[in-house]
Write a structure and sequence with these properties.
By secondary structure, the chain is mostly helical. It folds into two domains: 99 residues, Tetratricopeptide repeat domain (Serine Threonine Protein Phosphatase 5, Tetratricopeptide repeat), CATH 1.25.40; 99 residues. It is 67% helix and 6% strand. The protein is built from seven helices and two strands; from the N terminus they run αααααααββ. The protein has a two-stranded antiparallel ribbon with strand order 1-2.
């Protein structure tokens, strides 16, 4: 047992020297553009047990550089990733080509954690007003509908009044003419009332459009009523 321990102590420096020698020879072959020979020595470093992580990372680095120069980008990508696993702050030699730098940067970028697809939690900001909800205007549209209907009715009665007036002018009999005159006046009066009502209702709708739904304490008020003397529309701002 003591003999075995002694042999281990004696042979360990020789093994380390051998692995370092393969690493140096691999780098030398790479610098001499002998990429296949470089890969052979660097592969030995990978296969040797007990190799330190910095030496493993360096061997993988030069293996990746050799593969890239031999146009085997997939193997180069694999060796670069393994080297970065061992040494995340790995740097390229300064004298490599710009294409290798770009390839290496792309690999490092792809290893970064992807952004979180979940939206960031909403944080209410102080001093920023949220948009006010759309105002409801039921009375605006009711007034507009009534105004439109009144104006349509006014047009119809105006047409009827004109027709009865034409019949009145052509009627030869006095009693029949008197009836037509009364009908014409009645239709004309109705048309005028409807015109006034429709106009007032549409005006009220316009005012309500700008005032209805306000939350201020002093909101404008509008009132519409029919009196014996006609239509009474009032609004207060």
């Amino acid at each position: 047992m003591l003999l075995g321990a002694a042999l281990f102590i004696l042979l360990s420096p020789l093994a380390v020297a051998a692995e370092n020698q393969d690493l140096q020879r691999g780098i030398e072959f790479f610098d001499d553009f002998e990429y296949q020979q470089a890969l052979g020595h660097l592969q030995k470093v990978r296969n040797q047990p007990g190799v330190s992580e910095p030496d493993q990372a360096k061997a993988l680095l030069y293996m990746a550089l050799s593969h890239f120069t031999l146009r085997d980008k997939e193997s180069a990508r694999s060796e670069f990733n393994r080297a970065l696993d061992l040494k995340p702050d790995l740097r390229l030699p300064a004298d490599v080509s710009p294409k290798i730098f770009q390839f290496f940067d792309e690999i490092k970028e792809s290893r970064k954690a992807p952004p979180d697809p979940r939206p960031a939690p909403f944080a209410p900001s102080h001093g920023v007003m949220s948009p006010s909800p759309a105002r409801s205007r039921p009375f605006t549209w009711i007034s507009a509908g009534l105004g439109g209907a009144a104006l349509i009715g006014a047009g119809a009665f105006s047409f009827l009044a004109a027709q009865s007036k034409s019949d009145f002018d052509a009627e030869p009999w006095a009693d029949r003419a008197e009836d037509l005159r009364t009908t014409t006046e009645s239709r004309s009066l109705t048309a005028n009332i409807l015109f006034a009502t429709g106009g007032a209702a549409l005006l009220t709708a316009v005012i309500l459009y700008f005032t209805e739904g306000k939350t201020d304490l002093e909101s404008p008020t509008t009132s519409l009523s029919i009196t014996p003397s006609g239509l009474d529309a009032r609004w207060r701002f």
